[in-house]
Amino acid sequence: MDAFTSHTGVAVPLKRSAVDTDQIIPAVYLKRVTKTGFDDALFANWRQDPAFVLNQPAYAGASILVAGPDFGTGSSREHAVWALRDYGFSVVLSPKFADIFRGNAGKQGLVTGVVGEPEIERIWAALEADPGVEMTVDLVSRSARVGEFETAFEIDDYTRWRLLEGLDDIGLTLRNEDKIAQFEARREAWRPRTLPVP
Amino acid sequence: MSTSIPDRPRTLAEKVWDDHLVVKGEDGEPDLLYIDLHLVHEVTSPQAFDGLRAEGRPVRRLDLTIATEDHNTPTLDIDKPIADLTSRTQIETLRRNAAEFGVRLHSLGDKDQGIVHVVGPQLGLTMPGITVVCGDSHTSTHGAFGAMAFGIGTSEVEHVLATQTLPLKPFKTMAITVEGELKPGVSAKDIVLAIIAKIGANGGQGYVLEFRGSAIRALSMEGRMTICNMSIEAGARAGMVAPDETTFAYVKGRPHAPTGQDWEDAVAYWRTLPSDEGAVYDAEVFLDANELEPFVTWGTNPGQGVSLSGVVPDPASFDDPNERAAAERALEYMDLAAGTPLKDVAVDAVFMGSCTNSRIEDLRQFASIIQGRTKAEGVRVMVVPGSARVRLEAEAEGLDKIITEFGAEWRFAGCSMCLGMNPDQLAPGERCASTSNRNFEGRQGKGGRTHLVSPLVAASTAVLGRLASPSDLPALSHEPTKAEVR
Ligand code: SF4
Is the CB of B73 inside 8 Å of chain A's CB atoms? Predict the structure, then answer.
């Protein structure tokens, strides 16, 4: 996973609330068995509408998504994060994220910044006034800027540190291998086992 | 087991958490939690096995891991090759990965194949006081046993396969107390739909919900599973019910249930799990079971629900601008006008199945209503058991005959029309009364419209062709005897 410090790119206003993961990536695309190649699946149903914001040429190559509250609710599918990443998004800003989505995002190097609702409205207005304008999201100072407007965003310290360092989860856990083995040694006999098959 | 049990009253969730701490996180770092049971299916596992392979890592505990095929499996002609290429690829990939890594797998055609959340409990693998994870948000189902059970993403699946642990931050706790007695025709599904409508589709965010109170205690394990299953639809990480005699009786004697001294030890421990007197929750909610009526959703998230005797709400009646906009959009998608009585809404299809309501008791409830009646003309009714074992059990009781005589389709086990990854889908514009758990746009097929309901309401709707509860049905000239239903 690459380390993330600051990112500048085209930002898209997605003026909808409660964008669920079925909309981010419809279930039919979950059949793939690879971790990449999901860019065409992102918002697949909405993208059939020529008026949908991502279909507007001004936002080509966008890498920052600015959405309404409750982004990423619904199914736990991590494909939602892969699709956003594959399409080219590095950052999603929203007044509120669903927990599972946010957890998944942090692990895939997708920054999810929580910005207040009035500030999101300000950003939307700035993006719509100048479609295709670039935004800068800085993880070190936890701030997002478009034109003259700058606002702080929230992201928890631990996820931020991981993103800044580009750290892989499993390697981090396996530093505690001895503690895991000790725990296993004292687990009770009644706990379930799937093997052998009775 | 934990060496540092805090000296204060604790909730059920805190107890299970404390007893699985491998490392207590310091300075805002997450805790490292041990996972007792890892359920695997074909949709969220391929990339996880891919990751293990890339790093040359084995599965740490094959004896705590089990896989089944459910999301993509056809429910007809299961002996023929799967026609859809991508569905077939996912299933074949799981088979290859299971063989390569040594994971126990129940494939299509096997008697233990079925929806992952039906398979765990029926094998006796799901039990009180354990941690259960699966790459599927409805893992919350297993919390009905007093387990800490939650859905995880694919990279967490890889993490658990490699380490049998997960780094996690403690969840907040919410007590949802449901007191009283349900009226006839009202069931667990109505309780949970009413809870979600009350606290909102995101009202449980960040919480583990603990369902308690006399109405919950009176429920069967199937009913408790229905409620915990849908905790995630309130945005919660997990739902739990404290274990009691009903729980022990359900687990006892199942293939993987503890036996002998292990059983005695287990039950002794399980009895210590219910929340202590004076334990503090971060939030509390109350619901009166006496007042509950059959519930139905009118919109495109599970929080958009009302009593079946009510009307489609007017978006203008919502104070919150986001809720109002969501309601407007939902009514447009659902093609419903504000003020329409729900009981006037005609359906094209009825889906009886999914991990919410596809266990034997659910099928019995459905059958008890349709027996001796005929299906409404033009309505397609599909009944999909949750697992191959449930199917066999239902057939042994003769439920399949009641279902086919009624004019409904009796299918093989799987997720089916709950999410339409297999050929079981709604056509654009079709309206369905469904016992599943999600009414999102396009969930049951592109352009399909979903009304979430209980098995009793699904059955009554199948009879009348419009949303209905058992009390709306004309009396039968001949009431079926209990023996006939069973
Ligand atoms: S039945 Fe539906 S909700 Fe349950 S696991 Fe399958 S797809 Fe998910």
Answer: no
